[in-house]
Design a protein that fits this description.
It catalyses: tRNA(Trp) + L-tryptophan + ATP = L-tryptophyl-tRNA(Trp) + AMP + diphosphate + H(+). Homodimer. It holds the Pfam family tRNA-synt_1b. By secondary structure, this protein is mainly alpha-helical. Helices cover 54% and strands 7% of the residues. The strands form two sheets. It has a three-stranded parallel beta sheet. It has a two-stranded parallel ribbon with strand order 4-5. The protein starts with a strand and ends in a 6-residue tail after the last helix. The protein binds adenosine-5'-triphosphate and magnesium ion (MG). The site of magnesium ion has 2 residues, from loops.
């Protein structure tokens, strides 16, 4: 059984990406044949400058490895090392109704946040369908925001299979951990690279602390009771034990416990949780040759599978180009 997923290197990765996606990749790596990539073609939809894209791509691969993705168990690669994804995306776009894309929540959310949509952002789910279907993936571990994109992937696969009257594509299932499905950002909205509301676990301590301290709260005075289900406790719950979470909630309810106190406890937990990964990342940063080798090996393996699938698709649709 195959598990596949990707993250866009559209900014530095954050604890939402970790809990929604990377942690699942790692937890599944003994059970599934894993394919995990960096969706750099997808990242182009936000038109990053080329230096940032390069930097974010290498930074994200270090994040994957530092968090415990094991290249001996899973295939790690860059999407742009497998151009067949874009070829398949073009072919799939022809069985994708515009109406399906117009209903995209993620697309609509981004537009409502003032992001100017280009065609790439609009057709993002078609490329994502290609990413998934090209490897005959069985499951796709993701955060909840991607649920609809998986439904679209199945719709597109069904349309293709029906039109060509052949079971070319397997229908994949999303794998979402309900408890970690949507990690809130410092403003309470979904934590997203593109919403600039992130907490990045690999920042130097001072900057990390600054991010945690900027979590948005109301202005209830220190001595007064506060809503125990605030943004700080929600984030703290990702790291703390049941007892610790209850203790923090009680503190907020009782008063004389300020948001600053809660943020400091959260900051300490984040540092403690990620300490071994932060150390490993530093080691990897000094060993980029090793990282390059992993990407090269991953690209070869992924491309071998993807090109076979695309040959089958080309034949199925009647393209006569020689490849
Ligand atoms: P962008 O703002 O550029 O879309 P993003 O932060 O949403 O970036 P993606 O690359 O789109 O990150 O998503 C990568 C993976 O991380 C997906 O599986 C997605 O579901 C998951 N993910 C992203 N944000 C969260 C979050 N706040 N909580 C849980 N999972 C998340
Ligand atoms: Mg996203």
């Amino acid at each position: 059984m195959r598990s596949l997923s990707g993250i866009q290197p559209s900014g530095i990765l954050h604890i939402g990406n970790y809990f929604g996606a990377i942690k699942q990749f790692i937890d599944l790596q003994d059970e599934y044949e894993g394919f995990y990539f960096l969706a750099d073609f997808h990242a182009l939809t936000s038109l990053p400058d080329s230096e940032s894209l390069k930097h974010n791509t290498m930074s994200a691969i270090l994040d994957y490895l530092a968090c415990g993705l094991d290249p001996e168990k899973s295939t790690l690669f860059l999407q742009s090392d497998v151009p067949e994804h874009t070829e398949l995306s073009w072919i799939l776009s022809n069985v994708t109704p515009i109406g399906l894309l117009e209903r995209g929540h993620s697309y609509k959310d981004k537009v409502s946040k003032g992001i100017k949509p280009n065609t790439g952002l609009f057709t993002y789910p078609v490329l994502m369908a290609a990413d998934i279907l090209i490897y005959d993936s069985d499951i796709v571990p993701v955060g909840k925001d991607q649920k609809q994109h998986l439904e679209m992937t199945r719709d597109i696969a069904i349309k293709f299979n029906e039109h060509y009257n052949k079971e070319v594509f397997k229908l994949p299932e999303e794998k979402i951990l309900e408890t970690l499905a949507v990690v809130p950002g410092i403003d309470g909205e979904k934590m997203s690279k593109s919403y600039k509301n992130i907490i990045n676990m690999f920042l130097p301590e001072k900057e990390l602390k600054k991010q945690v301290m900027s979590i948005v709260t109301d202005s209830t005075p220190l001595e007064e009771p506060k809503n125990p289900d605030n943004n700080i406790t929600k984030l703290y719950s990702l790291f703390a034990s049941k007892e610790e979470i209850q203790a923090m909630k009680d503190n907020f309810t009782n008063g004389n416990y300020g948001y600053g106190h809660g943020k400091t406890e959260l900051y300490n937990k984040i540092l403690e949780y990620f300490a071994p990964y932060r150390k490993k990342r530093e080691e990897l940063e000094n060993n980029m040759d090793y990282v390059e080798k992993i990407l090269k090996k991953g690209a070869e393996k992924a491309r071998d599978i993807a090109s076979k699938k695309v040959s089958e698709v080309r034949k199925t649709v009647g393209l006569m180009g020689r490849n």
